[in-house]
Amino acid sequence: MSLETKIEIFFSESMMQKKTQEAVFVSPLPKTPFEFKWHKKRLEVIPQEPLLKDKTYVVSLGTDATDSHGNSLISPFSFAFSTGDLIDSGFVSGCVYSGKKVAPGITVSAYLFAQNEPELPYVLPDYVTQTDEKGRYELKNLSFGTYRLFAIDDINKDFLLDLESEQAGITTSDVELNYQFFRKENMDFFLSKQDTTKPSLVECEALNKNLIRVTFDQPIDLQKLVNPKSYLITSGEKPKSTLEIKLVYSLHNQDQNSFLITDDLDSKTEYELKVTDLTDQSGNEINPEKNKCFFSGTDSPDTAKLKILATSPEDKEKIVSLDKKLKIFFEKPPEKTSVEKAFLLKEKDGIEIKGQYFWVNPVTFVFEPESILSGETEYEIELKDEVKDLFGNSLDTIPFEVSFATLNPDTLGSLSGEVMLLSENQDKEIFVTLSKIESPELDYQKLLEAPGEFLFDSILPGKYILSAFVDLDQDQKFDFGKLYPFSPSEPKAIYPDTISVRSRWETEGIVIEFKR
User: Fold this and answer.
1) Which end of the chain has the lower number of beta carbons within 10 A, N or C?
2) Alpha carbon distance 148, 167 (integer Å)
3) 308-409: CATH architecture
4) What is the pTM of this model?
5) Quick one: CATH architecture of 412-514?
């Protein structure tokens, strides 16, 4: 075919011209954009530079193409032609998800990969297509080679990622296409906001002579946030003296702040605090130019009463699950023994419930009943004796009481199935999550040590979405991957259909499969 070829697309209906033009993708993308000319229902796509010799071109019409009545294409349409003797046969397909839902109208880009191209996806891709109404995509007629794929919620239609406003998805691996393996399916994406901004230390302040509050400009990885080795407090000239940090904690749902309990501060001394080896929740390291702060010492003791920030379940909460672990979130570390001695769980008629307690961190107390709670029963949590903090300050509310009621077990159902992992990650832990569609905040989660069977017992009836991911880095949360420095996402699978759970009934035979 001639290198001066014009491309024509014929429509059966009159089209919205601008919107349809934006839905036309020609791969490989030229350096100079194509010119468009309309002749009633015929669209002419005119190259502004000669086509490449011996190249297969793919013309795709995305789902944003819309007729004059507002009807969009149900699925992308594509065709291929070659400026040489052969048409390439490489093929990649998969699905794009946003949260737990499929994502239609998302741009999927393929880059012929070279190790010296860290700018991806900030340069134009070699091939592009768009997902259909079910979130599926197909990249057809690709030349052989190794590709790196990205999915982009391309709001401004420029085929490039805008970090400020657009989400991106990363696959679990690059794709190599050759004569023997020229098809690759099930290359799925899970969109997320890619954060590349390094976190900064904003402020540090002495709240009393033994407590320092440290504030960052974004949430910090919790494990590192509460590690005393992440902080260094010094004072004086060389040689500087170091202030001992005895304990570091953070409060419930407040990962932008840490609190440092230290040796006594000196009210006449200026201190320097430096943080190292901290990362935000996207893995970005602390900004080395903004990792220090200065504060003045104080000789004021801690005289503030101990407060409780929240409990789980909340006071007066209804329909509490029968296997609920009870939690108390304190505003500062209490003296643990005083809480353990004071805690009481009882039925409303006074029957005490036995169980085991443990501490998730210095400010979070957890009580696990030794057997499941009774259905449709009222319970009370009570701190019946005096609870104190580490400096002898008592609780601000004495006695402290919370009441809640359990659900009716006859309303519950169950779900069972199997996770199949068709890959090399057979020895990795798998997190299986069951999410209630009507209540997005309600998740049931199971940890499997290896692929195999799972059972969700005693769950509320309703419609659910089932998903699972392989926890390669063993941090108990799904890793979306990073653009730069590049790292692939963890394998994740979503069951293709909505699952209904009925009262007093086991929904069984559900198979969630990780495909190669």
Assistant:
1) C
2) 17
3) Sandwich (2.60)
4) 0.81
5) Sandwich (2.60)
